[in-house]
Amino acid sequence: MLDGQTQAKRSETAPRVKTLPKTQVECAVEAAAATPRKLNLALQGGGSHGAFTWGVLDRLLEESDVEIEGISGTSAGAMNAAVVAQGMAIGGRDEARRLLGMFWERIGQAAEWNPVRRSPFDMLMGRWNIDASPAAMVADLTHRVASPYQFNPMNLSPLRDVLETVIDTDHIRNSPVKLFVSATNVRTGRIRVFDHNDVSVEALLASACLPTLFHAVEIDGDPHWDGGYIGNPALWPMIYGCESPDIVVVQINPLIREGTPRTAVDIVNRLNEISFNSSLMNEMRAISFVEHLIRQDHLSGSAVERYRKMHIHRIHAEEEMRSLGATSKLNAERAFLLHLRGVGRSAADQWLRAHGRDIGRNSTVDIRSTYL
Asked: Who has greater pLDDT, 37 or 143?
């Protein structure tokens, strides 16, 4: 062993390793790694298919360096958005994930009392649709000949009960996440966007109000229906109201479905998909047009300041969603919701691994080939 003097002497004579200054590239890499990747989310509606979005959000919230600045949602997308905004205000990411789980768990519990469910044949065949359910057939015929004011005069709504037990608008108003909820004003035919300051349980119900199933929701003296008819979801509130140029569309309704629908159910299903995607396609056309003007340097002077280049992304599971019929949107069985959550988590994970580094840099969707 060495005595203290020998150790001190050797430490004085030992060569010292010089710490070289970091290069500009190394500094830039470290700075980029420390900077949160800020983005906005556009959440489509689609009944119980919104559990797919639950899975997407659950996975995104695990990424500590991904910051959600704003969320625009319609119908089920609006409810997911409101729950996330509330959770972020109360306790951050973990609380947002917990509240999402609680919301969808209660949706599943409410569905246990719903007679419109899968038939034994559907279960045996491993199908999530409820086409063969006798109760579903009766309900479908009823909706064709009677309005909700006739078959549900008391305006009973299990969804309202769930929202009233989960949603706290005071927390949403104080949320760090900007919230935009879309509904359709029946009187004017125009979109009504509720932000985090005026969102309410009524606004969320209005955003999900299919007129063949529910009474119109009156807000400020005007009746409102599902926001999907005119904004599913609306992108422009985030373009003008958020700093981040990145918008991630969480796509529930399939864009492409091969073949010609021939049965009544398939025709109605495809018609609804086209209708609920049309407003999104129109906004994508406008974004593409502005990108073309900027790219070709057609804008000059003060006009440039009014426009901005957006980075568009998309998280989807087209094949999975195409395999599900329209009636599955009314299936809120817990097993189905958890299945969709898993599909959503997987889709988000794949997108993060493939395109996570593109946030803040460029689009990962070719708008023209995908939407136009």
From this structure: 37
Mean pLDDT of 173-196: 97
Residue-level pLDDT at 24: 53
Which residue do the tokens 């004017």 mark? 188
User: According to the model, what pLDDT value does residue 36 have?
Assistant: 87
Question: Which amino acid makes up residue 86?
Answer: Q
Tally Cβ neighbours within 10 Å of residue 266: 15
Q: 210: closest CA among 47, 43, 44, 42?
A: 47
Per the prediction, the chain carries an average pLDDT of 88
Q: Please state, in angstroms and rounded to a whole number, the distance separating the CA atoms of residues 103 and 161.
A: 11
Residue whose C-alpha is closest to residue 39's, from 315, 280, 232, 345: 315
Q: What is the per-residue pLDDT across 210-246, written as a single tens digit (0 to 9) for each? A: 999 999 999 999 999 999 999 999 999 999 999 999 9
**29 pLDDT band (50/70/90 cuts)?**
very low
3-state helix, strand, coil split of the chain in percent (to 5) is: 55, 15, 35
Note the pLDDT of residue 122: 78
Query: Is residue 60 within a helix (H) or strand (E), and if so which, with residue range?
Result: helix 50-60
First-to-last alpha carbon distance for the chain, in angstroms, is 78
Average pLDDT over every residue of 319-324: 90
What confidence tens digit (pLDDT) does each residue in 91-101 have? Answer: 999 999 999 99
Residue 361 half-sphere exposure toward CB, CA atoms < 13 A: 9
CA 276, CA 258: separation in Å to the nearest integer?
Answer: 18
d(CA 326, CA 255): 14
Q: Are strands 222-226 and 66-74 parallel, antiparallel or unpaired?
A: unpaired
Amino acid at 130: I
In residues, how long is the chain?
372
Segment (H or E) for 113: none
User: Rounded CA gap, 269 and 147, in Å?
Assistant: 20
Q: Looking at this protein, which amino acid is placed at residue 342?
A: G
How far apart CA 292 and CA 282 sit, in angstroms, is: 15
Q: How far is residue 338 from each of residues 106, 122, 332, measured CA to CA in Å?
A: 12, 18, 10
Instruction: Return the closest-CA partner of residue 63 out of 359, 365, 303.
Output: 359
